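hey so i finally got around to running the thing on that chain from the lab meeting. sorry it took forever, my laptop kept dying and i had to restart like 3 times. anyway pasting the input first so we r on the same page abt which one it is
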Amino acid sequence: MTIVTQPRGPARAGDRTLATRLERLRHASRLWPAALLAVLVVVPFSALPLPVLLDGPIGSPGNLQLLALCLVFGALATGYDLLLGRTGLLSFGHALYFAAGTYVTDIVLLESGLSFAVSALLGLLAGTALSALLGAISLRVDGIAFSMVTLAFAQAASILVQRDPGGVTGGEEGRAAPADGLPAPLVGIQHTPALYWTALAYLVLALAVVQWTVRSPLGRVWEGIKENERRVEVLGMRPYGFKLAAFVIAGTLAALGGIVYLLLTGGATPRTTTSDFTLSLLVMVVLGGSGTRWGPMIGGILYTWADQRLGDLAGSQTVTSLPTVLRAPLSQPLFLLGALFIAVIYLLPGGVVRLPDRIRAARGLRATAERGEAVPS
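ok and heres what got predicted. didnt touch it at all, straight out
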């Protein structure tokens, strides 16, 4: 007969202590987003310098402008991942809805004289309606055909904007927004903190919408469509409607981002209509980690920061003083961005967001190896 002995008091107390620590750790892990948000809110009041990462104090107007752009593109990449990472739809035309929010708001302000609130609402509705219309057409096909259709729509819109029909888009120069038509608390270098908080609010909204939809029954259907669309059909559901919902939600978030971008830059530029702009979003999502909660946001922030800072590095005295064989490639920001992207893809499959998991796995392997060496043969 086998006798099972119960652990004595000290062992039980140790188990309880370990369980308590693990519970506290899990509780702390749930609170870190709120703590990070609190830090981001007070960033404009900080005079702390971050050498290499930023020039001068964090709260300076130039750095706040850069950080606001990073937050906008972090939110934009998060919305784009609803298509790529959550539903498995590779769209090359997502920039079109971002540009719709920017251009329609700007054109209405310039041509009609309506208030910014009304113009922004019309820009948001235009982005939503355009995504619904083009999504309804594009989703009639699947796979590469879907990607090519979205690319064709984006290219057509880009050509239309650059042709400047009726003089409303400004052609290759774009159009500056009227300063007197924008909200007064968001105009001028002295109001850069308010612009930063606007970008932060957009990021929080995008994260909330994406997380709410992903955790809803709708999000579970998206996951099923990504894994096996045929199986979803067998269960009696039509994937088309669910994919269109993802397309419209992502397009609406993009249009809202275009409006915030208009406030940050003070105008509409044809660069936001190109397929290259959408390819940048694709790089952001893959860089951070597609299909993850925080990966697209991290990728968008990292890519935007690198795009700005590497451009400064390429023109710095350090690079210009190098031999020609090194100066030629390092003076090209796109070369530096491409090298960074390739390094992340090879060294961190799954994106930057997977880095903590890989560190923990490496530590576990090291600890296992050390225990194995300690055991006598």
